[in-house]
Structure formats: C-alpha cells, structure tokens
Specification:
By secondary structure, the chain is mostly helical. The protein has four helices and three strands; from the N terminus they run H-E-E-E-H-H-H. A hairpin with an 8-residue loop joins strand 2 and strand 3. Helix 2 runs antiparallel to helix 4 and helix 3 packs antiparallel against helix 4.
Length: 201
C-alpha cells in the first residue's frame, strides 16, 4: 500500500470518527442530565431539550428537560393554582345554602300566591257567568282581568325562582365535588409529569 493511500485511508477513518463522535456525545443528553447554562436549548434526534430546574424535584439543580416534560410540569403547576383558587369551600357552601333557602322560601310563597290567584280566576269566572245584572257582570269582568294579569306576573316570577333554585342546586353540587375533582386533576397532572420527566427519557 502506498504512503498516499495509507494517509487517505487514515484521514477517512479520522473524518468518519469525527462525524460519529458528535451524535454519541449528543445522545448523552436526556432528562436529568446535568447542564450549566439556564434556559439553554438543544435538539437530539428530533427531541427538544431545555436547561432548567425540575419543579418536581426538591432543591433541583440545572438539568436537561425535554419539551414534553416542561409542558407536563406547566400543566401540573396550573392544576395546583386552580386547586388553590377554589379557596374555602365550606364558607362558599354556607353562603350558597343561605341563598338557596331564601330562593326556596320565595318560590314557595309565590307558588301559593299563584295557586290562589288561579283559584280566584276560576271562582270569579263562574260568578261572572252566573251574574244577571249588567253592572255586577262588568265589575266581575274587571276583577277577572286583574286576576288574570296577576296570574301572568306570578307565573313569570315562579318560573324565574324555579330556575334560580335549580342553578343554586347545581352550584352547590359542583362546589361540593370541587375539592375531590381538583385533587384528582392535580394527581393526574403530576403522574403525567413524572412519567414524561423520567430520567433518561
């Protein structure tokens, strides 16, 4: 083998080795691999990584974290904030209970007045039909008109109060289940983050 050929082959080996060395070094980067520059980014085999502290780990140091890991941590932190924003559920339930009892009492009162007005309409209608004196008939017709108007007003009030009572019932149910619902959301989000931030991923 001539000297030129030997040198050419040696150069090819060195060059080939140079190209293979970079991916081998880059391949070492994964979740949990130490890094030194905060917010530095890199891409390995199509996966993006960022140099940051893992919020899932207490007293975390700078390590490479995948984009999926960072997104999952963000979702977990968001779930924690939402859970905290609910505040004191017992106090809110007490306030809702007071509103609910007031609405129920108002609905009962309006319902009674509505039923009475309808009964008066029926009674007045019968009296008017039985009346033979024109002035009496006219008087009963006027009373009937007022009663009919009262029935319409009471019917509208009853409908609104019924809707209000149902809305309050729904709010109470949602608020009562909120702590458990948000707790489950936080647990699910943390489980996902722990999976996606697993060292070596």
């Amino acid at each position: 083998m001539s000297r030129k050929i030997a040198i050419a082959l040696l150069s090819a080996v060195v060059i080939a080795g140079g190209f293979s060395a970079a991916p081998a070094s880059a391949a070492k980067i994964s979740n949990g691999t130490a890094c030194s520059k905060l917010n530095a980014t890199t891409t390995v085999s199509g996966f993006k990584y960022k140099c940051a502290k893992n919020a899932l780990v207490k007293n975390s140091k700078l390590t490479w974290l995948s984009a999926e890991c960072i997104t999952a941590i963000s979702q977990w932190q968001s779930a924690l904030k939402t859970q905290a924003s609910v505040g004191n559920v017992s106090e809110q339930l007490t306030e809702l209970d007071a509103q609910y009892e007031k609405a129920v009492a108002a609905l009962a009162s309006v319902t009674t007045a509505y039923d009475n007005a309808r009964a008066q309409v029926t009674k007045t209608q019968a009296s008017m039909n039985a009346a033979t004196i024109a002035s009496e008939k006219q008087s009963l017709a006027t009373a009937l008109s007022k009663l009919a108007n009262a029935v319409l007003i009471l019917s509208g009030s009853k409908s609104k109060l019924t809707t209000q009572v149902r809305d309050l019932e729904s709010k109470k149910a949602l608020l009562s289940s909120a702590p458990a619902t948000f707790k489950a959301s936080v647990q699910d989000a943390k489980a996902s983050a722990s999976l996606l931030c697993k060292k070596g991923y």
